[in-house]
Amino acid sequence: MKAFTSFLLLTFGVLACTAKYYHEPNAPKLHITLYYEALCPYCMAFVTNQLSPSMVLKDRLHYTNLTLVPYGNAKLDDKGELTCQHGEDECELNAWHACILEHNDINISLKLIACMMRGRKNNLDKCAKRYHIDVTAVKDCKSSRSVDNILKKYGEATAEVDFSGVPAIAVDDEYNADDQEDLMAIFDHTFCAKYKAKFNITLNNC
Ligand SMILES: *[C@@H]1O[C@H](CO)[C@@H](O)[C@H](O)[C@H]1NC(C)=O
Ligand SMILES: *[C@@H]1O[C@H](CO)[C@@H](O)[C@H](O)[C@H]1NC(C)=O
Ligand SMILES: *[C@@H]1O[C@H](CO)[C@@H](O)[C@H](O)[C@H]1NC(C)=O
């Protein structure tokens, strides 16, 4: 009886693992772009409570071309200096995120960035240790360049989109103000609906 129970547990364990890691080969990817800044409370809540659980735990990342744009309401002032909505700390953190994105693929980047956004200070070392990620290149990026230089391309990407506040999400390369409330409040559900609408495919656990 005990052996049989172990057998059942093992079987279900294996099935559960297989289910977790099974991917439709060549599944189409829905483009999602998140415009955000490191220290806005709604951005922190969205990334940690909505985006990361959907992408990582529910495995939507495999079905997504996800782009993170860590710039938000940062602006170049009259003197050409970068100022961020939540001060210099935020410019620094945005630049750390940018260096993470530059030197890791999106799944690793998202894990690190979500981990960092659970706190308000730079937790890169703690987060890298937790996920066993080598961040040497990230640190070289941040120490060898100015924040303005690191964030330049994100400033340009942000300038192209007319959103009113962050976080802001573009789906299929389009920002639609009417979608924002659902994307913020029930991201995974909304992602599933958009995916179905575009590709006529219902993803697992939707
Ligand atoms: C990250 O995602 C890519 C594309 O989905 C995949 O090929 C790669 O194996 C993933 N890497 C890790 C470490 O999970
Ligand atoms: C991912 O999306 C970005 C922006 O929407 C695009 O420039 C890039 O080519 C896409 N990558 C793939 C592999 O589709
Ligand atoms: C969507 O997929 C279903 C089931 O695969 C199919 O029956 C239906 O014709 C498809 N609809 C469109 C608009 O392609």
Give a structural overview:
It comes from Drosophila hydei (Fruit fly). Belongs to the GILT family. Keywords: Glycoprotein, Signal. InterPro entries: Interferon-induced_GILT, Thioredoxin-like_sf. This is GILT-like protein 2. This protein is α+β, with helices and mostly antiparallel strands and 206 residues long. It has a single domain (27-194), classed as Glutaredoxin. It is 55% helix and 12% strand. The chain contains 9 helices and 6 strands, in the order αβαβββαααααββαα. It has helices at 2-21, 41-57, 88-103, 106-116, 124-131, 136-144, 147-159, 180-185, 187-199, and strands at residues 30-36, 64-70, 75-76, 82-83, 168-171, 174-175. A 4-stranded mixed β-sheet has the order 2-1-5-6. Helix 4 (106-116) packs across helix 5. The longest helix is centred in the N-terminal third of the chain and has 20 residues, at 2-21. It is globular and about 50 Å long. Mean pLDDT is 90; it is low at 1-19. The protein binds 2-acetamido-2-deoxy-beta-D-glucopyranose (3 copies). One 2-acetamido-2-deoxy-beta-D-glucopyranose binds next to strand 1 and strand 2.
